[in-house]
Amino acid sequence: MDLSGKRIVLGMTGGVACYKVAELTRGLVKQGASVQVVMTQAATQFITPVTMQALSGRPVYTDQWDARIPNNMPHIDLTRDADALVIAPCSADFLFKLAHGACDDLLSTLCVARPMMLPVLVAPAMNVEMWQNPATQRNVGQVKADGIRLMGPDAGEQACGETGMGRMLEPEQLLEEVIAAFQRKVLAGKRVLVTAGPTFEPIDPVRGITNLSSGKMGYAVARAAREAGADVTLVSGPTALDTPFGVHRINVQSAQQMHDVVISRAEDQDVFIAVAAVADWKVANVSEQKLKKTTAGDTPALQFEQNPDILA
């Protein structure tokens, strides 16, 4: 489990994207993290503390004067043993509070009172016009300057019916970002090129020669390099795997295509990792039409030629 033993304070502000945070909480717990949820009053309008308590397995805090804390100071105590503070969704209003150090409820006061070395990750979620508003962008610039890390937002359809930048990242993407935040950035500033998966050498328009490589190792390498801070390009043969979040993926089919893509980009890379199961041979006489069986039982006369060696 990537987050085994990690203690995360998960702050939730008002927004319809709160429903995604329920799944994020499940993901964090499955990865071994201990999750302490803190909700604003606005967040409780979208999802109940009971739901978040059930998913996190811990009491949820919403009130600055919560007497369940022995010294009645939840804004102090809740972050003192935490490894990270994650705010998702983070509304435009709460971005303002972070940028200006506002302390008008438990979560905002907790953010100001947190230990200065505690990593803070926020997942903005708002309407496209709210995100693009100059005031919001000034606040974004300030929180970045203060060392707070933004996760997203993404562009796409929004709950209001409009389309554009401002929607919160999906739960699995946020989970990848949280995991990456705990990794040492030993590859920061480096460009890494990774190949993965099988290649497919066509025989005719519907048939081909391939292998049983799943691509899992290459995808895991790409994910790990990205978590270590690298700018990662993944050149992938045909697989059913999802692209690791934050990785640029280039799909290819044949060994020749993979060779051409790698050669065209290799000079600009700092690291090249060849994990793909590349075919040594390809069919020289590829048929332009589907090869059909004959009544005589003749077999196709396939001619082979060697593929270029990517590592040569």
> Mean pLDDT score, rounded?
94
Assembly state here? single chain
CATH fold title of the largest domain: Rossmann fold
Give me the Rg, rounded: 25 Å
Order of helices and strands: EHEHHEHHEHHEEEHEEEHEEHEEE
CA-to-CA gap between the ends? Answer: 38 Å
In total, the number of strands is: 15
Number of domains: 2
What is the CATH superfamily classification of the largest domain?
A: Flavin prenyltransferase-like
Model regions low in confidence, pLDDT < 50 over at least 5 residues: none
Architecture (CATH level 2) name of the largest domain:
3-Layer(aba) Sandwich
Q: What is the 3D form?
A: elongated
- Count of separate DSSP helical elements: 10
Describe the strand arrangement of the main beta sheet, using strand numbers: 2-1-3-4-5
- Overall helicity: 25-40%
Proportion of residues in extended strands: 15-25%
**Estimated structural class:** alpha/beta
Largest sheet: 5 strands, parallel
